[in-house]
Amino acid sequence: MADLRVGLIGLGMMGRHHARVIREVEGLTLAAVADATGDPHGVAGDLPVLGTVAELIDAGIDMAVCAVPTAMHEEVGLALAEAGVHTLVEKPVAHTVEAGTKLVKAFADKGIVGAVGHIERYNPALQSLRARMADGELGDIYQIATRRQGPFPARIADVGVVKDLATHDIDLTAWLAQSEYATVSAQVTTRSGRPHEDMVAATGRLDNGTITNHLVNWLSPMKERLTVVTGEKGAFVADTLTADLTFYANGVINTEWDSVANFRGVSEGNVTRYAIQKREPLRTEHEKFRDAVLGLDAGVVTMQEGLNTLRTAEELLRTATQAVSRSV
């Protein structure tokens, strides 16, 4: 079977990684690239750098990756859907729920694959964690807490930290628990002098009763990507920077020091760091997208799932705005 011809639009920080991985994945050929601002990272190789999505479509592509700024997802995605091109759109799916809803409908109406690049789902640590949760290794799940902190990325200018970064945590939390959000509440602040929020503290509850907590910002001098899932039998800690997964078991030996035992609630048990295969998440994401286009696998983040995440993010921002209004 001939390779699928892939078009890539957007050659910025994420686009350069997409170009590399597309060239590495079996069954795919990077057939065309486009970016109205040029090719700052020199990823085009022998391919001409096209200027528009229309030119990309005219190159005769089977599938596309949309890595343009979030505000352009709607325009580019709708054009690709109209042309019948299977498309992976970088997260978030769009800049507004209204725009995301149009994309979901456009791809559904055409009967083609529309996927969203919530890459954390393909992190080996989170893949292993989800399987272990589903197998009951934690028993009842009580809480999922995430911390996603680091310096400000110069590449982001059109959305704030909630839609750019916190959407990772919203998506991975609902995916890990296999349950959507029922309620969310948040506090945000803007400290960097830019027009969008750069720090958020959010809490929520999923439909299945799991409580959630997310700390996300662009204001920390250190980079941190942690997911902690606490349950009946202990806690899992997934570090998605290193793809490490560690289990902290509840102890089975009673503590004789009564005051300590009463304070801790549970006793400390064994700590296990799992040896897991560490494949590059972006490569896994592209393999899943390829398989979905071929009708072999449904392991992509669908546009409807991406829309659900965006809707939760907008609700989070709404609650934060209300909180600020009440305090003034």
From TrEMBL:
Database matches in Pfam families: GFO_IDH_MocA (PF01408), GFO_IDH_MocA_C3 (PF22725)
A GO MF term: nucleotide binding
Domain GFO/IDH/MocA-like oxidoreductase, residue spans: 127-236
Residues making up the signal peptide according to the UniProt record: none
Record Gene3D superfamilies: Dihydrodipicolinate Reductase, domain 2 (3.30.360.10), NAD(P)-binding Rossmann-like Domain (3.40.50.720)
Residue ranges of the TM segments: none
Domain spans labelled Gfo/Idh/MocA-like oxidoreductase N-terminal: 4-118
InterPro entries: Gfo/Idh/MocA-like_OxRdtase_N, Gfo/Idh/MocA_Oxidoreductases, GFO_IDH_MocA-like_dom, NAD(P)-bd_dom_sf
Protein's UniProt name: Predicted dehydrogenase
